Prior knowledge:
Residues 1-5 have low confidence and may be disordered. The longest helix has 30 residues, at 104-133. The chain is α+β, with helices and mostly antiparallel strands. Strand 5 and strand 6 (258-259) form a beta hairpin. It contains 14 helices and twelve strands.
Amino acid sequence: MTTETHTETPRPAHFVVGDWQSAAFAATPADRPRAEAGIAAAYAAAGLPAPERVLWVPSPLRGAVAAAVLAGHEEALRAAGAAEQVDAALADLGADADAGASVRDAVRTRPWEAERAAAAAELGAEGWPRAWADSGGLLWSQVQSLVTRVRAAAGAAAAPDPEEATDEQQRAESLLRAATLDAVLGQHDAPWLALFESLGRLDGRLSGLAEVARSAGWWWPYERLAICCERPSELHRDEPGRLHRGDGPALAYPDGFALHAWRGMPIPPDFVESLTDLHADRILREENAELRRVMLEIYGYDRYLADVGAKPVHQDETGVLWSIDLPGDEPVVMVEVVNSTPEPDGTYRTYYLRVPPTTRTAREGVAWTFGVDEADYRPEKQT
C-alpha cells in the first residue's frame, strides 16, 4: 500500500477562504479551457480516460434536463409538459445521447471521501472540526442555501404551481431534483475545497476538481461525455450574503433560468413591481406569511406601525419594543433604536431590528442583537 505525499504549502486560512468565496459567488463567464483541463485531470486522477467531449450548457436546469434524458426519463418529462426543454437537451446532446454510465463516484465521491478521511484521521477529533470552522465552515451556510434554492428551482421548472401540479409534473419535479443531486457542484463545492486547500491537500487527486470549481459551474461526468454548465450571469446578495434584489432576478443564468428573492426569501418574479399601491390593509390580507414579511419591510415598519395605531410593548433607555400581530403567523417583534452617531446633516437615524417573538423588553431585544443575555448587556457607551 502506498501513501500519497502532499507537498503543497498551505496558505493562511483567511486568504484561502477569501479566494473560494470569490469562486463560489463568481458571476462571470466560465473559463472553458481551464475547466476542460480540470475535467481531464479529474478523470485521470480516477484512472479514467478523458471524456470524448465536454458539452457546455447555460444553466443547472439545462444540465439537469440533459442528465435526466441520459438516465432514460425523456418520456416522463414530456408527459409533464417539458417537451421544449427535452428537445433543447436532445439538441445539445446530439450524437452523444449515449454518453455511457455516470462516473461521478470515481471522479468525485471516492477521492473526496479518501481525502476527507485521511485529513480527519490526521487532525483528530478536536482538530478536524476546528479546521472546518476556520475554513469551509465560514462559507457553508451561504453556499449551501444557494445550492438548495437552485435544486428546488430546477425541480419547480416541471411543476410551476405545486398546489395544482399533476402526478406527471410531480414525478418530473422529483426526477429533475434527483438529476441535480448527481452533479458535481463546481464553484459551489467551494466550502470543502477551502478546507482541503487550507490543509494543503489540493495538489493531488483533488486538483482537477478544484480547477473546474475555480472556472465553471455544476457538471455531470459520464464515461464518454462531461456536461458542464456556465456560471451565473447575475448574482445579487445583501450584506449578510442572502440572495436579494427588488428590481430583477437575484440569481440568473445565461438562458434565463433565475431565482428571485428578497432578503433570502423566495418571491414571484413580478412581486416587488406589483407593490405600487401597497398599504397596511393589503399587507394584512396577504395570505402568504413570507410575502407578507417582504411587504412589511418594503412598506416600512415605522410607517406600518403609524398606520395601524400600534402602541409600544415596552420602552427603556435602550430603545422601544414593538410587536405586530399577523394572522396565521408569529408576531413580528422589533426593537426601535436610535443610532448614537449623527448623520452628516446632524440628524440621528432610527433603526428597527427584528428580534425573537418571545422578546419581552427593549433591553432584552437589543442584547439579543449583540448575542448576549439581557443581564449581561451593560454597555459603557452605545455606538
